[in-house]
Amino acid sequence: MSVEKTFYGKMPCGKDVHSYSIKNSSGACAQIITKGATLDRLFVPDRAGKLTDILVGFDDLEGHVERTDYQGVVVGQYANRIAGGRFTLSGVEYNVTRNEKGITCLHGGGEYSGAVWDAEIISDNAVKFTYFSPDMNEGFPGNVDVSVTYTFTDDNALDIAYHAVSDRDTIINLTNHAYFNLAGHGSILGTQLRIAADYYTPIDENSIPLGKLASVSGTPFDFTVSKEIGRDINAEDSQLKNGAGYDHNFCINGFDGSLRPAAVAYEPASGRVMQVLTTLPGVQLYTGNFLKGVIGKGGKPMDYRTGFCLETQYYPNTPNVPDFPSCVLKKGAEYSSETVFCFSVK
Ligand code: BGC
Q1: How many C-beta neighbours within 10 Å does residue 321 have?
Q2: Is the pLDDT of residue 218 over 80?
C-alpha cells in the first residue's frame, strides 16, 4: 500500500490544490483532491482484473471549479435540501443560503464542496482531510471543525469516516457525492441495484420530502429485490416526474447508528459489484438526471444517466421534520458517521 501526493492545479484565488492517490498492492487506487475533499478517480478491477476509473468527473481542476453538479465532492454542512433555506433550532430561527431557485438550500450552499481542505497522510493507506467552517458561514451556526478520512484497502474497500465538533448547537449532514459508472462509461440504466429500504421519502415539485415515509412496495421505488435502474425509471409516476427520474431518499432498514448494508450495485458486462454500507439512516439515489453536455473525463461530453449517486445521509429537510432521525449536533459533542464502498466482481 502507498500514498502519493502530487500537485493538481491552482484555484482561481491562487490556492494550490493537491491530489492524494492511495494505491493498494494490486494497483487499484483511489485519488482524492483537496478541493472539496473530492473523490476524483477510483480504479477498481473488472472480472478480468482490468482496472478502470469508475467515476464520472473531470480531467482537471477547471471542471471541478466551474461545474455545479457536485462530482465526487464532500457536501456539507447540510447535504441535500432544506425547505425555504430555513429551520429553527433551540428556539432560534436560522436562514441559510438559498442557492437553488432562490427558495431551497441545496448541499449547504456549496461551502464545504467549494473549499480547499487541508490534508495529512496518516498511514500507508489513509488520508485525513480537514476543514474549518466559521460560525454563520452560509447561515449555519457554530464554528465547526470537520474531518473526512479516506481509507482504501487491499480488498478494494473505500472507507469514508466523517467527524465534526461545533462550539454551538448546530445541524450537520455530510456525504460524498460521487457519480458511479461501474462500466467506466455509457448508460447506467442496465446496472442492477438493490437498496435495503422498505420505505422512501416522497417529494414535492421542489424535491422537498412531504414529511411522511411511503412504502416502496408496488411502486417504481421498490429496489428490495435487485433490478435494473432503468426498468421502471420511465414509468408513469408522479414521484419520478418530481425528480425527473430517481432523485429520492431511501430509508435504510433497521437504522440504529451501526454500520449496516444500504445498497448493492452490479454491472453485468464488467462484473463489477459495489456494496454500500453506512451508519446513516438514509441514502439518496440520484440517477444523473441533469448530466448533459458538459465536457467530462477524456474530453467527452457527459450525458443523462451516465452516472448514479448513492449519497448516504440524514433525510432531506430533516431540520424541519421532527419525526425524521435527528441531525442536531450539540455544542461540544462529537459527530461521527461512516460509509464504506466495497468493490468486488461476480
Ligand atoms: C440532488 C439532485 C441534484 C444533484 C446535483 C443531488 O444530491 O438530489 O437533485 O441535481 O445533487 O446537484
Answers
A1: 19
A2: yes
Confidence of residue 272 (pLDDT cuts 50, 70, 90): very high
Q: Is 189 left (phi over 0), alpha (psi -120 to 50) or beta?
A: alpha
Confirm if 170 and 142 have CB atoms less than 8 A apart.
Answer: yes
Set of cell numbers at residue 291: 448530466
Residue type for 5, please? Answer: K
> Structural domain tally of the chain?
1
Burial of 172 (0-12, 13-18, 19+ CB in 10 A): buried
What is the longest distance spanned by two Cα atoms in the chain?
58
Which atom belonging to ligand 1 lies closest to the Cα atom of 75? 7
Q: Range of 108's domain?
A: 2-345
- Kindly give the distance from the C-alpha atom of residue 69 to the centroid of ligand 1, in angstroms, as a whole number: 7
Could you tell me how far CA 6 lies from the centroid of its own chain? 24
The answer to whether residue 205 is catalytic is no
State the residue for C-alpha cell 420511465: 234
Cis amide prior to 275 (ω within 30 degrees): no
Residue 341 sits in a domain of what CATH number?
2.70.98.10
Taking 90 as the threshold, does the pLDDT of residue 66 lie above it? no
pLDDT of 8 strictly over 80: yes
Annotated catalytic residue 311: yes
